[in-house]
Write the structure tokens for this entry.
Amino acid sequence: MTLETTGLSKAFGGVTALDGASVSFHQGEVNALIGPNGSGKTTYFNCVTGMIKPDGGTVSYQGRDLTGKAPHRIARAGIGRTFQLCRTFPRMTALENVLSAVPPTGLIGGLRSARGRAEIERAMGWLTRLGIEHLAGSEARDLSWGQQKLLELAGVLMAEPETVLLDEPAGGVNPALLDRIGVLIRELNAEGRTFVIVEHNMDLVMSISDHIVVFDRGRPIAEGPPSQIRTDERVLGAYLGV
Ligand SMILES: Nc1ncnc2c1ncn2[C@@H]1O[C@H](COP(=O)(O)OP(=O)(O)OP(=O)(O)O)[C@@H](O)[C@H]1O
């Protein structure tokens, strides 16, 4: 097990977003977290990465308790994430965006080291790996939505996280780029990175995942390999409302 939560709970006013979610994601695998709209997936990511504090329950990573820790502590523990609505600096170039990604050593150290030649080469390496090196000098706001998602991922990878949480990597992305994102995730996984992916595109989820966890109303209702999840009646029920 790599990332594990027990009884994770979070309510917003009267709305229960997470209802005692006990989940284990597998180290070294591509894990997916799926479920209907509003089932608590993004809230789960937010609790795990310290963006919001859970009302109850625990988060542990590689056996370490990370419950309620600040986002930079969680990043330093080896967890990186992207956001559903993509976070880049629109008026900075793609290269500057990747260089300004906060490394685990903290912002000041990051800005200082970002000036180094080696860091620029490493940033260019990630842009190349993600197929957007030709956009290194372009402002992020001039990139297409899909390219911005790749740029955000390049920034996350700069911090060399061993586990990467992706919130809807395929959302709004054109089919050609979608294929590339799928291949990239599998390649990065083959190099040893663990992934947890929140995604609505079932073709992508079924084709790249080793392990799938299904949420409904703030808690897991099923988990297993794609072959099992595809035919699980509880999953079909949650999605189709039957
Ligand atoms: N900051 C917030 N304030 C109030 N309610 C919230 C907040 N964040 C989430 N919620 C509510 O919590 C529930 C779970 O939302 P969440 O975004 O975690 O679901 P999701 O599974 O990620 O949905 P989607 O697939 O649509 O992105 C929803 O009812 C949502 O409206």
